[in-house]
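yo

u said u wanted the structure for the complex thing, so here. seqs first:
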Amino acid sequence: MHAIRKKRLITIAVILFILSAALGLVMYALQQNINLFYSPTQIASGEAPVNTTIRAGGMVVVGSVHRNSDTLDVTFDVTDFKHNVRIQYRGILPDLFREGQGIVAQGKLMNNGIFRASQVLAKHDEKYMPPEVSDALKEAQKKTTTKPSTSDF
Amino acid sequence: MIPEIGHFALILALFFSLCLAVVPLIGYWQKNPTLLYTARPLTFLMSFFVLVSFLVLAFAFMTDDFSVMYVSQNSNSHLPIWYKFSAIWGGHEGSLLLWVLILSGWSSAVALKIHTLPKDVGPVVLSVLGIVSLGFLSFMLFTSSPFVRLMPEIPTDGRDLNPLLQDIGLIIHPPMLYMGYVGFSVAFAFAIAALITGNLNSSWARWTRPWTSLSWAFLTLGITLGSWWAYYELGWGGWWFWDPVENASFMPWLAGTALVHSLAVTEKRGVFKSWTVLLAIFTFSLSLLGTFLVRSGVLTSVHAFAADPTRGIYILALLIVLIGGSLLLYGFRAGQVRGSATFGMTGREAWLLLNNILLTVLTLTVLLGTLYPLIFEVLGLGRISVGAPYFNTVFSPIALLLIVFMAVGPLSKWHKTKASVLLKACLFAALLSIVLAGAVSYVNSLGSLAWLTLSVAFWAVLLTFKDWFDKVSAGTKGIIPRARQLPRNYYGMMLAHLGMVVTLIGILLVSTSSYESTLKLSPGESVSFAGYEFHFDGISHVEGPNYIADSGEISVSKQGRFVTLLTPEKRFYSASRQVMTEAGLDAGFTRDLYVSLGEKLEGDAWSVRIYVKAFVRWIWLGGLMMMCGGLLSALDKRYSTKVRGNNA
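structre next:
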């Protein structure tokens, strides 16, 4: 009986040790690798942190895409129809990137208010809008329509 | 008229699944052999009608019946015939039908083998499978029938299959993946039947093992195919993205791997019984969770198909009823199945316990990373994404540790191992592998992380072969007869473990020794890169059956000698108005050359992505080895009914 109890104790100790080590690892990794999404309005109001990896997105403003003729640098604006954010990117844009389409970019907001993207994501379906973007659009819309009536609350 | 037959067949299948879910269970409680006996014919009837409805849908696709909404959304008259067939599972409704078809296939297979089970257990197993079928058939009929018609305005042509899915990889990937996912329902049904009947001895584990190994092999193949497809079809040269949809298939694989191992202990030693039952429930629950995540569209993902809240809620309810119900049953009954046998702390049981702990922890970390954005959003904390670095940071060290122990387990003996014997073998292998890996890393100037990983790889290979050599050289008979005598189960394990190492080496080298570059190229220009010269010959216009394309020609040479001509394409699918990148690939055992076209820039110039990927094929080669290992052990002679008595 004593031997069995000892065995059980060792087993539990090993499990606890591995679990706590894994938990520590998880906490550490989560702290480093969570990327919050910010809408153009939130970025314009200064809510978004600078020089931290975040996500930003909206509809690509028609006519805002400019390519550098020598390099693969490209800039474009995204909007939630209230505010715009300028995004800078170097590389190949996804197949579904085009003006008027909803996109999400991952990267860092710089001090000058320009968003430097390391990755640009567009969804592989014409009708499909990234949920972040559709939320941001709805949010912006709501603010515009409810503004006159805020005194009621 | 014909699509209505499919719909009607589905209703009949639902009816028979309801009977199957209820009648044999009543028979079990009333000890009525006639009612128990109905399980087998009911299973066949249900499966037959599911098959009929699947064939009807296939017929609708083949004959371009665009009055069926699902066909018009996922097919087109110009689509090549084989893609018309695979378009059956190109969308939500059809993939559910495939899910149910495969579930009824597994159920029928169990029904065919029912004579190997005790008279009162077999029907209960089938009945549990019937409950799962009932859940999914009703889900399909009430929320997502593939037979809904577009009347009276029948579209003249369909909207075409998503171009991403028009590919050989996507013809075979979903069925294989589902074979695996859904196959775990058999292990689940065995576990539930064991809880209901209280019949949980070592023969329970022996019945469950081949089914589990087989499903595991299919799932391994499915995941491998998916990774291979993503590599060449998405055009970014990545082979794993930690995308929620990938994780959805990976979690059951991790849990299933643990299950395969704990079943071995339960069969051989009669311990870990209640844990194995819980693991079987856990594994299938993760399959269901995966289905929920993919089918309800709750996650942000490149694979997103549809987002319809009623579907999400129905499948969530189904998930809660099935998982909650089985856990409740487990809570009430598990106490009775606790094994009396003890296990040794120095025996193989202890190593397999460690295997199970590590695999479970891995599963939980992937689960947490996948669900974290959901939890965050539900709590109203905003929208977040958990990046691939999270998974890499957490997953890699634990997985590496797992592989270290993977090699030790087989070397140890059941119950008790002499520590000195084990220590001597391990010490020798450790020294040799560290030196070997050091030499390889130094010659190829790889970093210390590569040294560590390669050491683990060499260590696992050395110990795996040492164990085999010990086994065949013991005794008086020659090596070859001894090697033949070892069971298939053993070779299955060996192959799967070596496959794991091959994959590990592939992952390591592709991430440390690959080159990539994104640049602007005009016709006539060339670029030197990683020892190769890429010359952009020009662009030509190509017309496919349902697309038009710009096809680039890039000739690759090495030190003046021609290597290959790569033809990456930029396709425009006219029916769906989508643009697709088709990579130009030259596959090799030690390296892949990979070129994909970006966008057309000013003049004739294009932005081009070039990769030289080292050893990337090894990742999938290892996957195939693991699959063969799983198949081999599922086919072990000990599971065939004829010799059952001898090996018990």
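Strands of chain A lie at 34-38, 53-60, 66-67, 73-79, 84-90, 102-109, 115-121. The first helix of chain A runs from residue 2 to 33.
cya
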